[in-house]
## 1
Amino acid sequence: MTQTFDALRLLVVEDHQFQRMVAVKVMTGLGVASVQEAEDGQDALDKIAASTDPIDITICDLDMPGMDGIEFIRHVAEKKLTSAIVVASAMEPELIRTVEDMAAEHGMKVLGTLEKPINPEKVKTLFEQFLSEQAAAGSGSGSSELVITKDMLITAIQDGQIIPWFQPKVLISNGQWVSCEALARWQHPEKGMIYPGQFINEVETFGLMDEMTESIISRSIEQIKQWQSEGRLINTSVNISPSMLGNIQLPEKLMQMIKAVGIGPELLTLEITESAVMENVAHCLSTLARLKMKGFTLSIDDFGTGYSSMQQLNRIPFSELKIDQSFVKDAVSDPTRRAIVEANIELARKLKLKTVAEGLESAADWQLLNELQCDVAQGYFVGKPMPADQFSDWEAEWKQTYSSLSSNTSDQDET
């Protein structure tokens, strides 16, 4: 479904008048009604201070006279003066990446980078990403006014209000839908759909993560069975919390759950973040070994973003390595990110692990991962998280997209 950008409020910070004019024209051409302009960092801060409405996205150059873009972004990030930042600069990728990390360390959302001249399709992709992430965080849903208590969450879990949505994963070699990831959504009886950004912290604070995860697993297993009855063997992955890994009874409990439904353990993947196994290591390793022995698939999630990555790979029997979206994002234009992605794929290949790339946002990302021989793709370019009953429509649309990708690749090969 095509998204509209008329409600977005933008600020373009660019000292070069012609390039600033081009950027503004691109934004308005995409349907954005509110676009402010500034010629350097101080001018931009003045515009933000004078604005009656908050700025959603700031598109900022780096090399500017007066207050440069790096100093401006530091001010904006520290004071949370805008919801998200896009860096538009011709500077070297290493410098841009450092600026992005600086902003992220201040808690600022960095949507990505734009090369000059600005590409409208890239801008459109970033805007769609922003709106999707705002929706996932519950922005504008009315849920921000909801005060969440422990009793409310207990009721939500017990009554089945917290349900899985599924994000598809496809083989890069042929585009086939083979798996998906289950992600929690709260279907509140009065407030409607509440997204994870609005309740996951409370779930963790109140010590209810195990109960919620078990409920998501149960619902996911039922959906796997439904797909199986339709002739589809769709592996589904679920994130496992650290406290669950410390439960030595977890393997038996999961086996009982899948046997009751009548599916094989190989259809359920358990995603383990690197930091999840750092506490109570002995119990975690025992649980993971027994899960592997019983036939469940283990995936190391967010690889390279936690601690002791190589040690985790060495001592845990993983079958899958997920390349974090922070590396996949902009790997097409950033040689360092590309090198990291390529190294992860090569490492996984030598360890005989399947690779899953998270965060694909464009056809260019797809082509790069195809070139690097990654196994599986997951991201908004392939499909967003959705209820299971929407997969028929999604699959039909995806087949058209993949057909177009294949045609473009064939044309390039013939050239």
## 2
Amino acid sequence: MIESRLLLATTNRGKIRELKKLLLGLPFKIESLDKYPEFGRYRETGQTFEENSRGKSLFYSRSYPGLVLAEDSGLEVEALDGQPGVYSARFSGSRATDEKNIRKLLRLLKGVPWPRRRARFVCVASLAKQGRIVKCFRGSVSGYILNEPDGRNGFGYDPVFYYPPLKKSFARLRAEEKNRVSHRGKALEKVRHFLAASWQRQS
């Protein structure tokens, strides 16, 4: 039978909240890394979201007795040749915060016209168990970068990511709205289906 414990390989409180909502209802005891400081910390050195996601899930799966779900995600901006990409969380340096990252992004895009402010959020989620990858899942969503922050919900670059179909920034969406259309929501929906199907087959 598939393990009934699932570790979210992150200490980011915003991500933990989103992930738990997206996985709600699955027959797993969902835990997060902040309960296991003895596992150490994985150093992200990959050049792609998939490399970081796979590496992280493998690293923690060697210590955890159940399944490990790791995701790496970030923002790719067309006018910046795909930056910040895998460096999204630390775009403004070693002491990066969401606010500092947004300020740097907007500074670099100053004067860039709307058509060239196209961007996309990308998420790759990986499941691992006992040192081996079980499966990887990908999700993405396209939009534009605003000239200034708009809204207070979400985290990361949400205040400056404008989503045309809903005519709002991600930071103006309710959690349920965002989870239906976001990169993480799309990737985790695939995770949900996979876990639910695996549970049914093996229970």
## 3
Amino acid sequence: MSAEASGTTSILLVEDSEADAEWVFDCLEESGRTYRIEHAPRLADAAARLESSRPDVIVLDLMLPDSAGWQTFRELRRRAPDAALVVLSGLGDETLARNAVRQGAQDFLVKGRTPPEILVRALDYAVERQRSLLRLRQTTNRRGKLIAFIGAKGGVGATTVATSVAAALARRLDVIIAELESLGCGLAGAFRIRAQAGAAWSADFSDPDQLTHQLWKLPSGLRVLLGPPPDREVTAAQAEAVVDALVAAADRVVVDLAPRASAANAAVLRRADRIVMVLEREPASVAAASRLLEYLRAACRLEGLVHAVVVNRVALACPLPLEEIERQLQIPVLAVIPPNADLCVQARRSGAPVVFYQPESALGGCLLELAAKLEEDHAVAS
């Protein structure tokens, strides 16, 4: 019986160390919550338990006596595709655990460095997130994957990164890029689309074909959904309907979100397969990212799905170390974008993303690598 039906979260703990297993049991006991826990010290034991039980969440140590690394992860994911999966990491295999999150685990926790309340929160969020994904699979015709980009604050270059990633993916896939607001230059400015904003937002959201017929198609094949007029605010229900229609109509949907907490943004983020937060390598931007992440974790329950992209719009004399950014935000840095403000201006004036305008540049090459990483994540997770 599931947590949703019984009110009790069922956990399969796959951990060979008695001390680490005891730590998990103690953390859960301190929470005062009710859990139903099974313990399997080996992969074979976990496989046997999964023959007769369907846990809400699997808490997994990747390094077991009879299995190690990706073999462990893939085998448990194959045997329990509907369960949330949280990886337990030792100090020496954090990279492996981070990669597991990129490939479909909901989160990872470092042994000995995770307070009890963080463990409990991570398990709750993992179960809620997995439950939401299962509902989406049952109620929507999801053809593709959704990648959401959101800036830590305005002006950090999130649109530049999002448009370049979408353009790079469109070389091999059917891709739609969308925005929920048309403030500033937005997508119209990035692609030099001379059109009145919001035409598609007059379509019948319950009719996916009517909506997708209103998209702008660029010579590259990339399709674009411009945001509505500035005086029109998108509701959560509208955002959900639009995103569901787009995901049913393309291999990849990239959404460029305004850096603010809103019901519409939350609706999109809850449907995202990957979230990319764009920030600069300086204290004010990291502080803004931290505040936005608090909202994402509390309102959207997106622990484990968010990665950072650090943008260097200008060369800084004393940039924050990447390790410090990861420590403060508790999310991995997926890419570091080198500075080249002049090239960004030239690309925008041409109406072509940097990856088309100068793909051989250091900036273009870095953005192409970012797109390849995101695509690799989805390919392996599928």
## 4
Amino acid sequence: MLETVFIGLTAALLFTELTGFTPGGIIVPAYLALSLDRPERLAATLAAALLTLGAYKLLAGRLLLFGRRRFVLMLLLGGLLSQAGALLLPQVSILPLEARIIGWVIPGLLANNLERQKPLPTLAACVTVTVFTWFAARLAGLL
């Protein structure tokens, strides 16, 4: 697992340097690649990031949110959604536990980049680096 994270970090850094597009945060593609065989987790994580972005947009009209404040709010909202999902999923959902959100930082990082860089370039970069990381880890025998 640790080696896959290093591959993902390196791939994300190189991709960002070569293209100028951030793949949802430097660490995000590595963790997504670790869960690429569980599409429920990817969908739940993307949903949490989009909900985080939506909540931010609602709050941004009422609060001064930019720079660090925006970033910290996104991390807090993403973490809150992740924890709420982990607590509520077993009680109120018919979905399997595999539909858990990946981490508590990943949705906030992804939402922050979706806001800063816009959704299409962010998601395209994220998919590209995630798939590359997964293939590289598979070729190395890590996954």
